[in-house]
Amino acid sequence: MSFGSGAMTNSIREIKDCEVLFLIGCNPTEAHPVIALEMKKALKRGATFIVADPRKIWFAKHAKVYLQHKPGTDILLISAMMNVILSEGLEDKEFIKNRTEGFEEVRELVKDITPEKVAAEVGVNAADIREAARIYASQSEKTAIFYTLGITEHTCGTDNVRTLANLAMLTGHIGKPSTGVNPLRGQNNVQGACDMGTSCDKLPGYQSAYDPVIKEKFGKAWGVKLTETKGFSLPEMIDEADEGGLKAMYIMGQDPVMSEPDQHAVKRALGKLDLLIVQDIFLCETAKLAHVVLPGASFAEKDGTFTNSERRVQRVRKAIEPIGNCKPDWEIICEIAKRMDYPMNYASPKEILDEVASLSAHYAGINFERIEHMGIQWPCPDTSHPGTQFLHKGKFTRGLGKFFALPHRAPAEQTDEEYPLILSSGRTLYHYNVGTMTRRSESIAQKTNDCFVEINNIDAGRRGIINGEMVKIITRRGEVDARAEVSSKAKEGVIWMPMHFAEASVNKLTIAAFDNITQTAEYKVCSARLEKLAG
User: Are residues 233 and 213 in the same domain?
Assistant: First the structure.
């Protein structure tokens, strides 16, 4: 089963018509408020919610079943739900028979993973797991899964996603309206960036950078022979820089000093580079370390396209001319290429999109004229095609949907007597990612402008920590101070911090452990302890 590197299988407009919504590892009201509004429409219409999250998010208060599970136990939880579905005969036998392969291996894997056996390790009641499984499997045909970084930001993140795909295929909740497996993208154009081949092993349209036929196609279009050298992922770049194998980095629109785990190690590695170039709209924390800073234009100063969570390619129109010496990113890249003796000549973003359409089947039918008034959802194979509302109708992209038999894998770091708490991190409503833009807004600063750590009432009581006082959070990588927010929102044994604050960066604390396929860091689980500040 393939989703196009994390694309929603279904559309945002279908959400309001869902009758069962399974939210796991996502917090829509704070991290995806527009999609949350569609979910609230479903709630108002009487939809049933199942919520699985270590924090009591807004939708947890409105859920029929709330599973406040322990971070890093998603596979156990989902496997136990599949055990219930199979033991009670709630699976979609026809769908499994006609549209999938590998089912027997999954059946064998989960046959002994009963809710009763895993309840203590997962940290929820067995009865609640059983109820969630029954609702998801049999209450309605219009049943959908929604997830985000709470699922992917683990060393087993890919396995987590594949296990959710198993659950959807097991019940046939895929390939139909208001169903599917729907990752909610965290930035306005992260889907578009992935579509364009920003992964080290992909060319635009998720085409393999190592396939000779595909390489020849792109090489012919670009008038070059593509290299045989395999690229590095970002964590590999950091490691290579630290070891002296990578001499230069060109970073555009990203702030790895703030966003990558184990900040001290990242700074050390970047400091060893012979050349660090950073292209951004503000002097971010990484740009402060750069040898050269290139001023990019903001979204309001350039034309082009954004592709959102539902795979919709939309026009972006320039509202103002670039300020000062800023230039749109594509123009800067072209100018650098020319100075490196490659004549990269494009007249406009329109011409760039036309080239993408000529090389990627996903985008083949998309051009500026067609998306002038309304965006189009890929895949769109030709200019007469209306775009694809939902994926996998009648047939999966790969033919048969593949079940993966995936056992639970523990997080890279375990709690112990010295570090007895699990630290997790994420976003808040008022700030955006590492705060490069939002922390410069005075109106947003009036809402929240200091770092905090959420602590469960029981954990705070044991340590004599009072709501609002400053505490120290310590892991094996470092320590930061933050304001305590004491409530029942975080699960007992779990603390949570936002990622927005450079002066108390949570990534001074997080562990540099990564998913073995996507190289996504395990931001959601590391071992920590709390200390009251003296005085």
Answer: yes
- What number is the average pLDDT over the span 14-37? 96
Q: End of a domain among 377, 410, 434? A: 377
pLDDT tens readout for residues 175-223: 999 999 999 987 778 898 899 998 889 999 999 999 999 999 999 999 9
Beta carbons within 8 Å of 507's beta carbon, 6+ residues apart: 258, 259, 260, 261, 262, 263, 266, 425, 499, 523
Convert the pLDDT of each residue in 123-182 to its tens digit: 999 999 999 999 999 999 999 999 999 999 999 999 999 999 999 999 999 999 999 999
**Cis before 235 (ω within 30):** no
- Alpha helix locations (H) across 244-348? 256-259, 263-271, 329-339
- Name the DSSP class of 467: T
Contact present, 144 and 173 (Cβ < 8 Å): yes
| Helical residues (DSSP H) of 249-328, grouped into ranges | 256-259, 263-271
Element (H, E) at 528: strand 526-532
Give the count of domains, the chain. 3
* SS3 at position 457: helix
Please state the pTM of the whole predicted model.
Answer: 0.94
Domain end (from 342, 377, 412): 377
Pairing of strands 470-474, 479-487: antiparallel
Q: Look at residues 427, 394, 504 and name the one whose alpha carbon lies nearest to residue 174.
A: 394
Neighbours of 80 (CB within 10 A): 26
Q: Six-digit token pair at 268?
A: 């050390």
Query: 103 and 221: one domain?
Result: no
- Mean pLDDT, the chain, rounded, equals 94
Judge whether 7 lies within some domain: no
Read off the CATH number of the domain in which 18 is found.
3.40.228.10
Q: Tell me if 528 is assigned to some domain.
A: yes
390 Cβ contact partners less than 8 Å away, ≥ 6 residues apart: 9, 10, 11, 14, 175, 176, 177, 179, 180
Model pLDDT for residues 185-194, shown as the tens digit of each residue: 877 788 988 9
Is there a single domain that holds both residue 352 and residue 213? yes
Instruction: Tell me how crowded residue 517 is: count the other CB atoms within 10 A of its CB.
Output: 12
Mean pLDDT of all residues in 440-455? 87
Statement to judge: residues 164 and 213 lie in one domain: no
In 347-478, where do the E strands start and end? 376-377, 401-402, 421-426, 452-456, 470-474
DSSP helix, strand, coil percent of the chain (3-state; round to 5): 35, 20, 45
Q: What is the CA radius of gyration of the chain?
A: 24
Q: What is the spatial distance between Cα 323 and Cα 465, in angstroms, rounded to a whole number? A: 48
